[in-house]
Specification:
Elements: H1 2-38, E1 43-47, E2 50-53, E3 56-65, E4 68-69, E5 74-79, E6 83-86, E7 92-98, E8 103-110, E9 117-126, E10 128-132, E11 135-137, E12 142-150, E13 153-154, E14 159-164, E15 167-172, E16 178-183, E17 189-196, E18 200-201, E19 203-210, E20 213-219, E21 223-225, E22 230-238, E23 241-242, E24 247-252, E25 256-259, E26 265-270, E27 276-283, E28 287-288, E29 290-297, E30 300-301, E31 303-307, E32 310-312, E33 317-325, E34 328-329, E35 334-339, E36 343-346, E37 352-357, E38 363-370, E39 374-375, E40 377-384, E41 387-388, E42 390-394, E43 404-412, E44 415-416, E45 421-426, E46 429-434, E47 440-445, E48 453-458, E49 462-463, E50 465-469
Parallel strand pairs: 2-9, 9-18, 11-19, 20-28, 21-29, 30-39, 32-40, 41-49
Antiparallel strand pairs: 1-3, 3-4, 3-7, 5-6, 5-8, 8-9, 10-12, 12-13, 12-16, 14-15, 14-17, 17-19, 20-22, 22-23, 22-26, 24-25, 24-27, 27-29, 31-33, 33-34, 33-37, 35-36, 35-38, 38-40, 42-43, 43-44, 43-47, 45-46, 45-48, 48-50
């Protein structure tokens, strides 16, 4: 009986345990359900929700629950890209996301007391497009190379659409991911380049069409003279910068052409064949042509002046001749002398020629200035005879055997003459001296005997003067 009772008691205990367990289980499940039902759900939004693989995209994450922004939420990325961060007081977080492959980027938002929020960002390969050159000139044919890449590799078969600035073009990239196209936009502005291919994010780029710069040409001479050849320097610029390889064409009263060097300059020999306007035109591909003018005037007259205006016959003298036309000094003009003297010279850049003139006798000397393209001009100056020297002495009488200081005064046309040689000889005297700026010289004389004491004065360019002293 005891064995039976023990078995029965054991079964009762088991039954009680099972019932207790069921009751406890029901109670726990109820509490768990109540607990789960009271935990709020959190949501996370990703903007944008797709990115291009291989590129960095700034993605903004927003966490909310029951319409209220949640701060201090941990955001964790996994899958095609990784990263993490925490939302700010506005429930926002911005991360630089770079997917390394195509696929999904898993977004997990977590914060204690809230059910985790999840979302997915799709990563697909993006197309990268570039144009070389990136800027072209309107109205100018230019070959542009477009390159399409994805994840660092060329993409073949990508559809490209180009539009803007008055052009429109569609094409497909070749095996090297390229399209080479000659473009000539009629307008200026931005040219949009868009490329598409399945399973790739669209790519885009901007090509700029700029207006053509205007060429400006200036010349070193504004006025030229008919039949006078002149080397003229032309300078071509655009926007203030020199332009090389620009073609210059001269037309109108003169003709010629040239090409500018790297400094935007060229030198052309210009000879006007008639009066009027000389048009200088400049052009170069990719630029708006420019022009300027030079005036071709009729033959101008030369004038010539001399300094000094008179010379002494038989005395070599340097004479300065100045040649002008109007108020301008004329270089390379030939000055020819005729009449009482001959000679010639050529003016320098200041219109001056210096000629040594030595006339055989007195008379008029004509100086004629001539140059091609000018009417000759002339002037005259005089070769005068030599002036005569006169001499006086103080005292004019000396005593034999007595040393006497005698002052001699030399003049010409009543003007004192300096640098004249005074020679005294005879009567036992032989001496000489030279006059000072007052035309005077003082000599000590001691006479002897009864002969004549002669005084002679000489200076180049003058006729000799004489006198005698008594003793």
């Amino acid at each position: 009986m005891r064995g039976y009772d023990d078995d029965r008691n054991t079964k009762v205990y088991i039954a009680i345990a099972l019932v207790g367990g069921l009751i406890a289980g029901v109670f726990f499940n109820g509490m768990l359900a109540a607990l789960l039902q009271s935990t709020p759900q959190m949501n996370v939004i990703s903007i944008p929700d797709d990115v291009s693989a291989g590129k960095i995209t700034n993605v903004k994450f927003i966490t909310i629950s029951d319409g209220t922004a949640l701060k201090n939420v941990n955001i964790t990325l996994s899958g095609a890209a990784v990263g993490n961060g925490t939302t700010d007081v506005n429930g926002m977080l911005e991360l630089a996301v770079k997917a390394t492959t195509n696929g999904s980027i898993n977004v997990m938002a977590s914060r204690p007391g809230y059910k985790n929020g999840t979302s997915i960002i799709t990563s697909i390969s993006g197309l990268d497009v570039s144009a070389s050159p990136s800027s072209i000139t309107s109205g100018t044919d230019t070959f542009v190379t477009f390159n399409v890449m994805s994840m660092g590799k060329p993409v073949a078969g990508a559809a490209m659409n180009i539009s803007g600035a008055g052009i429109s073009f569609e094409g497909i990239t070749d095996a090297s991911g390229q399209i080479i196209k000659q473009l000539n936009p009629p307008g200026t502005g931005k040219i949009a380049v868009i490329v598409k291919k399945e399973q790739h994010a669209d790519g885009s780029a901007v090509l700029t069409s700029t207006g053509q710069q205007v060429l400006a040409v200036s010349s070193s001479h504004n006025t030229l003279i008919v039949n006078v050849p002149v080397y003229v320097t032309f300078t071509v610029t655009a926007g203030g910068s020199p332009v090389a390889d620009a073609g210059i064409s001269i037309s109108g009263a003169a003709t010629g052409d040239g090409i500018t060097n790297p400094d935007g300059k060229t030198i052309i020999l210009v000879t006007p064949h008639t009066t009027g306007t000389i048009t200088v035109s400049v052009s170069k591909t990719g630029f708006v042509s420019g022009s300027s003018t030079i005036t071709s005037t009729g033959t101008q007259s030369l004038s010539v002046s001399s300094s000094p205006s008179s010379i002494t016959a038989a005395t070599p003298t340097f004479v300065t001749f100045t040649v002008k036309s109007g108020n301008s000094f004329i270089s390379e003009s030939t000055v020819t002398l005729t009449g009482a003297a001959s000679g010639n010279g050529v003016t320098n850049q200041n219109g001056i020629a210096i000629i040594q003139v030595n006339s055989a006798g007195t008379g008029t000397i004509t100086a004629t200035a001539s140059r091609t393209g000018f009417t000759a001009g002339s002037t005259t100056f005089t070769a005068i005879g030599q002036q005569t020297l006169s001499v006086s002495a103080s005292p004019s009488n000396v005593t034999n055997g007595v040393a006497t200081f005698v002052t001699f005064t030399v003049k010409s046309s009543n003007n004192p003459v300096s640098g004249a040689t005074v020679s005294v000889y005879g009567g036992g005297i032989t001496t000489d001296g030279m006059t000072n700026t007052a035309g005077q010289v003082t000599l000590q004389l001691t006479a002897s005997g009864t002969g004549t004491i002669n005084v002679a004065v000489r200076k180049e360019g003058y006729t000799e003067g004489t006198m005698t002293l008594a003793h």
